[in-house]
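I am writing to request your help with a piece of structural work I have in hand. Thank you for your consideration; the sequence and its tokens are set out here:
=====
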Amino acid sequence: MLHVRSIWNGVISFGLVRVPIKLVNATESHAVPFREIHTEDGGRIRHRKFCELEDREVTAQEISRGYEESDGTIIPITDEDLSHLPIPTAKTIEIVTFVPEDSIDPLQMGAAYYLAAGRAPAARPYALLREALRRSNKVAVAKFALRGRERLGMLRVVGDTIALHGLLWPDEVRAPEGLAPGTDVGVHDRELDLADALVDALGEVGLEDLRDEYREAVEEVVAAKISGEALPEAPEPERGVRVLDLTTALEMSVRALRESRDGGTDEPAEAGGGRSPQRRTSRAAPREAGGGKPTSAAKRPQTGKPAAAAGQDAKRTAARSPAKSTAKSPAKSPAKSAAKKTPVKKAPAKKRASSPKRSA
């Protein structure tokens, strides 16, 4: 169960059936938070609100809303003025129709929420609406008021929970007129076949394998700055390939994807072409092998530390090993044999040198 604070409490109006619910955010942001600072001394930048007439800072209690006319005149609008609006959806998610899910334009989709049953008596009507949505294979379109305005929403079943997707009103979606090329631009059958092959090759990547590589790279930079280590080096940009025509570009794309799929590893994370899963795997392996100390020990040869310590460790290891005598015996035997042969070779030389003297 999600232990998240509800942002809105109300009821779902399903005909004469009313379902008390709580609105909970279904998504969360993992973006790295930054603060504005003064470049010279690192001090935090604070944004304060000033009244342009009195030229002084004002508090939140002194701030209200107003509507600006075309000539710049501000018309104050108070909370009391808005409290008398005849909005039936002020605390109600009013279901107005049921439609097939594919009839909702994805351009209208906005923020997503989970609907939790408000109280114990709400469990049965909540389950009734959920099963009705499942059996109809449709989604519910509803109206509700949130954050000072009436909104459009779509209710659908996610697992055993009813989810609410905020929708834009139809007149809030712009028409894409004049953006696409003219209909007189045609493509060849060969290009379509290659595009189909490219679609099939790219279709093997799962959404669960995709990662925010930019966020991971930013986290690495922040971690390096905190620990005082060197900043990670940026990867070298890939060399661009000059493509002469569309068909060649498609053929090279399909060939590259097939080669990477057949010759690459079987890890699903690398099928998406991401570099961060490889970095994450290389960092996680030493920790699983033996914690922080083995990891630092493994890094010593790479950092170029003196080899004397390594030689001392090797001597200690050799002293403990029973194979020490075995290792020394072959080393001594050649030395002894060489020492014995040396006098034998020198003896004839001395005799030859002395014989001429005697004869003389």
Observations:
- Residues 247-294 form one domain.
- The two ends are 117 Å apart (CA to CA).
- Residues 83 and 90 are 10 Å apart (CA to CA).
